[in-house]
Design a protein that fits this description.
Blueprint (H helix, E strand, L loop, with lengths): L4 H9 L5 E9 H4 L5 E3 L7 E3 L1 H7 L2 H4 L2 H6 L1 E5 L4 E3 L2 H13 L7 E9 L2 E9 L1
Antiparallel strand pairs: 1-4, 1-6, 2-3, 4-5, 6-7
């Protein structure tokens, strides 16, 4: 059994590299506004609402509002998916928002791993 230890050790130490995500910073409360839906209420015919345009229009003022901050943050990616952050990611988002000068379209680059639908954030950088 001890002769197998040198062969097993590299397998036990290996960890998968973190994935990289680029997109727009959103709070969980407002993330549903970015969901793409087809609206049929217009006399001109169906239209698509939400999506990246809604995410880009989201304001820093709203992101920093107490209710939105309390709900937590996440990233809305270019492929129209929302990944909520873990607690560490939420803290990094709060700090990034304090530094950001942009009023809308708060773009970020995040590295981390998705576990059960939650993005465990290793790094968060304003773009």
């Amino acid at each position: 059994m001890l002769r197998l230890l040198p062969f097993l050790l590299p397998v036990l130490v290996f960890t998968a590299p973190a994935a990289e995500f680029k997109g727009v910073l959103l709070d969980k409360d407002c993330s549903s506004k970015a969901e793409e839906i087809i609206s049929t209420g217009s006399p001109d015919g169906p239209s698509i609402e939400g999506g990246m345009l809604a995410a880009e229009a989201h304001t820093r003022e709203c992101l920093r509002a107490p209710q939105c901050e309390k709900s937590g943050y996440g990233i809305y990616t270019n492929d129209l998916k929302f990944f909520p952050f873990d607690a560490a990611g939420n803290r990094k988002a709060v700090e990034a928002l304090k530094l950001s000068k942009r009023e809308t379209d708060i773009r970020v680059e995040v590295t981390g791993e998705v576990d059960n639908g939650v993005l465990k954030v290793a790094t968060l950088k304003l773009l």
